[in-house]
Amino acid sequence: MITPRLGLLCLVCFSQLIDEPSASAADQPNLIFILADDLGWRDVEFAGSAFFETPQIDRLAAQGMTFRAAYSGGPNCSPTRACLMSGTYTPRHHIYTPGGRAKGDPKYMRLLVPARGRDDTDLAKRAAQQFPITNSLDPAFICIPEVLKPAGYTSARLGKWHLGEDTQGFDISSADGQGGPDGSFYGEVHVTEQLTDRALQVIVEHQERPFFLYLPYWDVHTPLRAREDLVEKYRRKRETLPEDERDQFNPVYAAMIEAVDTGVGRVADKVDELGLSENTLIIFTSDNGGTSVAQLSPLRGMKGSLFEAGVRVPACMRWTDRIEPGSTCDTPITSVDFLPTFASLAGAKLPDSQPIDGVDITPVLDGQPIEERAIFWHYPLYLQGKGLTVHLPDGKTDSWRGFPSTSMRRGNWKLIEFHEDNTVGLYDLEKDPGETTNLAERHPDITGRLRAELDAWQEQTQAPILTVPNPECILGPLPTHASARDLSPMAAMGLMAGEVTATSALVQLRLSNVDHPIDRDVPGRSGVVNFVLTPVGGDEPTDDVPNWKESRLVRATAERDFIARASFDNLQPGTTYKCLTRIGNDAESPRDGPIGSFRTLPGPDAEEEVQFVVVTGMNYAKFHGDYRIDRKQHAIENNTELPAPYDGPDKYLGYPALDSILQKRPDFFVGTGDNVYYDTPDNPRAKTITQMRRKWHEQFVQPRYVELFASVPTYWEIDDHDYRVDDGDNTGDYEPSPEVGRRVMLEQLPIAPEDVEDAKTYRTHRVSRDLQVWFTENRMHRSPNATPDGPGKTIWGNEQKAWLKRTLRDSDATFKLLISPTPLIGPDDLRKTDNHTNINGFQHERDEFFQWLGETGIGQRGFFIICGDRHWQYHSIHPTGIEEFSCGALIDANSRPGRLPGDPKSTDPEGRIRQPYRQETPSGGFLMVNVRPSIAESPPSLTFTHYDERGALLNEHTKVASLVD
After folding, report:
1. Pairwise CA distance, residues 423 & 7, whole Å
2. Contact by Cβ (8 Å): 868, 669
3. Which residue in 72, 101, 546, 817 has the fewest CB atoms around it within 10 Å?
4. CA 927 to CA 910: how far, in whole Å?
5. How far apart are CA 936 and CA 40, in angstroms?
6. What pLDDT score does 384 carry?
């Protein structure tokens, strides 16, 4: 229950059920974090205050270290507190402001954002859909107390939380904002004293074991109120100042600062009194910059702004006999650094379920440097107040202290990107801490380098970059030059060639409004694309090479998701073609677009070496760490805990395996399905065309995909996750429907010309004299999974089965490879019923097909199966002798342990399948297939090679034609 007074706080206490700590209690410091609210950078004496009195805070600083470049995680209270607790930047937790919406008159907002005071409900709904925003920290985030608990810590929070209802692992927590005379502590003149009283009690009661005390005072936030005796003290002091200086200082504000200062001193004294100072780190700082009553000069801006006065804060730390007294630190630090720092000091494990954006700053406490890095802020909203001036139509002016922008600091350089007009400000903070002079044009090299880093961070964190104009805005256009991105469409997802044969190819490009993702999407844009194809290194045109240069002009429209796809025929076998593009709003105003290349297949008469790569399981959500994934359900379905998301510094580039593939220069790339995951996370999952399209956009915009597909042509299949839902068939009235699943496949992937509505998604290609490949369609023609297995149950459907048998029988290729989205041999999980390996699934069709392979002799003449779907790599041999190679999941975070023959939870409990290779340690990776023609006395050979995602060889198996005939 909630008591009416702070002294009778309702405490939520949990039993100390903890894992064995990784360090002894004697080695683990107590951690006390004191957070003032809205205290400005110069509002303490050690930072240069000329009026406010902070002797206790100054004593703490003198006994320890002051930080001259300390920053909050956001320009106001809630985002900073979320950054502090989670160790993640604002775009990851989606908390940008306490109210969850922009504050100010929407008529003066040039961009459409969620805003207070908007009467148009339809417009409000559209604005809310622009990007995720909340004012409550998702309980899925692992916060500081939850990190420290397994290491043996008790955690207490006393004071302002401002992150929703959840306690986030605190053993002791105050009832946030409740209990004062009017139902709230907020605004009480004695609140700081009462919080300090309770903090001292916690220190005394928990001094025998390591503890974390989080003491976020409500002071000095408005409303301004304080004890009258202290207010009178500062009234008298202000009267001693010259008359022209008196208006700079507010006596009530000064009294509130003294209340905080007294509380800090009492906490430090209690630590000393109990003999804990040598094993206690005390940190004092503020949650953001100051307000209009704070001392802000010479910094620019104020609370709510990404200029320095909005995010630079006072900070000091004391740890007796560890931190050198009187020391200073000029290394920039920020709120997200405290979670990894506390974990390091406590010997605790960092959470693997979320990225940690901060760094361990323990070395700076010892006077040692840490590696230079950039720190970032993102604020996609408006906040009215003293800041940038806006001229109104009636001649008056308005002002914004916060406006849609992103900023970063690296070294002494500060860059701010203004989203309204796509301009930037560059400032040298060492020479110009007030950010008075924009050096962007004077230093274009620095500006370009930092902006590229800022763009990469925005992409990595999925920071929402707003581009939609606000239709209710009454302001005229900004007096700035339009940027290149405003003048012409872009092609953020690059160029992709698909379904290349010996004489034809499809080439596609999607026009976009931006060159990087916005809220995990890449907004499209209509326009035209001119594809120009030329052979590379060929002779001048002759009768034998008629189309040495050919072009296609294609319009990109919203109906086809702004994808332009061109079809080229009459190409030459075994020839490399360069594809140039020109893109524009129309055919009269094009500019250079992406450039790509591909090589046509050698064809049935060519005895050439061919190598290609096969992949599956490209799970974007698991790679980047989507916290909405149900971890318990994942463990049930995948025989393993959810692996940690990728945390390398190159994460924004995309999957490392793509770079490994590119280094091996394959002739083509095969995606066997599960290319995207409409159902990860399961809630919410992609159901509509718009939501499904976003899954493809966020995946193919990754720089490593763009680079790979610029030179390696592709062939695609889809499976359950990129058709409808896990193990999905064509039954059920849930979304997406089978019709939508097929439509999006043919729209997003270059499988067929865009005007061929009845395209077959099963097909075969003769690659060379020695190689032919078959791609089956395993979702669209299947019987319901729940149908009893037997003669009438099929994955392929009668038409496809007849085609498959006919084309296999007609082929004289040395090696015939059936590339299937799902396994035919496995073994697989016993619980499943949706593929050819599954008991009560589709084994009858598989057995019938294998029997046919045996009767015709095809199964003994160079026939092999390659499958996707399975999240582990293997080489399996069916009792009939048919062999299958699984490519495994592309990324580490989507890998899992496989089922072994003989496993009672597998589809082969009797162990009848032989398995020459199975990946022992789960990891991402791919399968490389190499076909070498006969040379001299050596017959043709076929080699299957498994690699991990870094390109390390795991397994290699070679077949020689004379041994397989």
Report:
1. 52
2. no
3. 546
4. 28
5. 81
6. 84
For 619, phi then psi, to 5°, come to -90, 100
Q: Which amino acid is at 757?
A: E
Return the DSSP state at 703: H
**Could you report the per-residue pLDDT of 910-938, keeping only the tens digit for each?**
999 999 999 999 999 999 999 999 988 89
CA contacts within 13 A on the Cβ side of 138: 18
Largest Cα separation within the chain, whole Å, is: 107
- d(CA 210, CA 768) in angstroms, rounded, equals 69
DSSP one-letter string for 733-794: SPSSPHHHHHHHHHHHSTTS-TT-TT--S-EEEE-SSSEEEEE---STTPPPTTSPSSTT--
Which amino acid belongs to residue 261?
D
| Angle, vertex CA 97, rays to CA 93 and CA 101, nearest 5 | 105
CA-angle at 960, arms to 956 and 965, nearest 5°: 135
Cis peptide before 681 (omega within 30 of 0): yes
Structure tokens at 201: 């009690």
578: phi then psi, degrees, rounded to nearest 5:
-95, 135
% residues pLDDT > 90 (the chain): 71
List 775's β-bridge partners, or say none: 763, 819
CB-CB contact of 86 with 335 (8 Å): no
Asked whether the predicted pLDDT for residue 260 surpasses 50, the reply is yes
Query: For tokens 């920039």, what's the residue?
Result: 332
- From its phi and psi, is residue 16 left (phi > 0), alpha (psi between -120 and 50) or beta? beta
pLDDT band, very low/low/confident/very high, at 487 (cuts 50, 70, 90): low
In angstroms, rounded to a whole number, what is the distance separating the alpha carbons of residues 127 and 215? 36
Paired strand residues for 134: 95
Whose tokens are 């919080």? That residue is 195
Distance CA 723, CA 312 (A): 49
Could you say which DSSP state residue 572 is in? P
Phi/psi of residue 672, nearest 5 degrees:
-90, 10
The model scores a pTM over 0.70: no
* Sequence-separated (6 or more) residues with CB below 8 Å from residue 16: 154, 171
Spatial separation of the C-alpha atoms in residues 227 and 720, rounded to whole Å: 66
Tell me: pLDDT of 242 over 90. Answer: no
C-alpha closest to that of 405 among 503, 497, 301, 505: 301
**Omega cis (within 30) before 827:** yes
pLDDT of the residue at 350: 95
| Residue 805, CA atoms < 13 Å, CB-side half-sphere | 18
What is the rounded CA–CA span in Å between residue 640 and residue 140?
Answer: 19
Could you give the dihedral angle defined by the CA atoms of residues 933, 939, 940 and 943, in that order, rounded to the nearest 10 degrees?
A: -120
H helices within 94-190, ranges in order?
Answer: 121-128, 144-148
Q: Cα separation of 365 and 323, whole Å? A: 6
Record the tokens describing residue 845, joined without a space. Answer: 């069709």
> Would you say 646 and 893 are in contact if contact means Cβ atoms under 8 Å apart?
yes
| 255 contacts 231 by C-beta, under 8 angstroms | yes
Residue 90 near residue 83 (C-beta atoms within 8 A): yes
